[in-house]
Amino acid sequence: MRRNSSLISQDADVFEDTSVSRVQVYVRIRPIVQGDVTSITRKGAVSVEATDLTQVRVADGKKEKIFQFDQVLPPEASNAEVYQVVGKPLVEASMTGLNSILMAYGQTGAGKTHTLMASADGLTTSVVSHIFALIGKDAAHSYAVTCSYLQIYQERVYDLLASEKSGTEVFLREHPKKGVYVENLSEYSVKSPEEIVRLLKSGKRRLAVAETKMNRQSSRLLPAEEVTSLATVSDKNSWGKDQTLFFSFSCDLAGSERVKKTKAAGERLQEAQSINSSLLELGNVIQALAEGTRRHIPYRNSVLTRLLQDGLDGNSKTSLIVCVSPSFRDVNETLCSLKFGLRAMKIHNVAQVNVNEVSRIFKKRK
Ligand code: ADP
Ligand code: MG
């Protein structure tokens, strides 16, 4: 396998265009860790194929499959490099007044938390730090940044910055003008990246307490959807829009494979299935948007899709990082995750696509 000396592919200029076109889909392969099943040559089941870093190859020992994405981040890519490829364009989008959404998707253990929430250099922290840096340079305007942190578990929403040590249940409401919002969700006004890091850390502690309380830790194999953070930046003067949103979340892949593997039964099985069905709804929404012809998009069927509605069909830049494991043991989950990513790549917002972007994407695909 050869790779470019730089992780930024030759087509990096595509990312500088902040016009809304389609969901950008990246695949991140985590490094081999203890317990992974590799071949005798110590190679994993998943590798980056083309030198332009857009193809990923999956081998299950019998067959091989090649998938094409916007960019593949190899196991040796650091969080700082992932920020350059995935995070920076989102910051640029935020600064032009677009909402930006960063999603991580994949099976448990594939590297979602490492990617989004690593304390020192996780993408959520890096994105917010860079927003602060840009705001700091703009002496002509004043900005307000607020931060919230919540978890969705079994269709219920928990405020992870509430005063209770294990978070508080909060509820979705719909406002005729504001749209869908979370009532009474804690919103902290923040002045520096350090404050965000501190808040996210305290939220993570509440998450851990909640998991112990609800016995979730022991069912670690069961997937959970987790909206990790939500930052809003507002300034009435410069962006022609009074608020822009940065929303990052991670979502565990759930599938029949996993339920079988965990030998879930009774209550646990029910739990797994309920999480399955809500993720299914995200898949359904993505599918309906991808077809581009359906008038009814089934946003209302789950909390996650209701929260994401504005982001998925509105004036937003959305990026998805599909996190995959290199282990042969995980090949089925890896294939499921990659197929989800391929569907997400088809989401277009036709009305907003400009001609340059189309021709460049077309060139890239040839
Ligand atoms: P997930 O959130 O998808 O369940 P984690 O982010 O918790 O997965 O990752 C599982 C384990 O693998 C953790 O111990 C994490 O530190 C490690 N890991 C994941 N991705 C990387 C990476 N890119 N580099 C080093 N370690 C990683
Ligand atoms: Mg995680």
TrEMBL record:
<dbReference type="InterPro" id="IPR027417">
    <property type="entry name" value="P-loop_NTPase"/>
</dbReference>
<keyword id="KW-0067">ATP-binding</keyword>
<keyword id="KW-0963">Cytoplasm</keyword>
<dbReference type="InterPro" id="IPR027640">
    <property type="entry name" value="Kinesin-like_fam"/>
</dbReference>
<keyword id="KW-0206">Cytoskeleton</keyword>
<dbReference type="InterPro" id="IPR036961">
    <property type="entry name" value="Kinesin_motor_dom_sf"/>
</dbReference>
<comment type="similarity">
    <text>Belongs to the TRAFAC class myosin-kinesin ATPase superfamily. Kinesin family.</text>
</comment>
<feature type="domain" description="Kinesin motor">
    <location>
        <begin position="22"/>
        <end position="347"/>
    </location>
</feature>
<keyword id="KW-0547">Nucleotide-binding</keyword>
<feature type="binding site">
    <location>
        <begin position="106"/>
        <end position="113"/>
    </location>
    <ligand>
        <name>ATP</name>
    </ligand>
</feature>
<protein>
    <recommendedName>
        <fullName>Kinesin motor domain-containing protein</fullName>
    </recommendedName>
</protein>
<dbReference type="InterPro" id="IPR001752">
    <property type="entry name" value="Kinesin_motor_dom"/>
</dbReference>
<keyword id="KW-0505">Motor protein</keyword>
<dbReference type="Pfam" id="PF00225">
    <property type="entry name" value="Kinesin"/>
</dbReference>
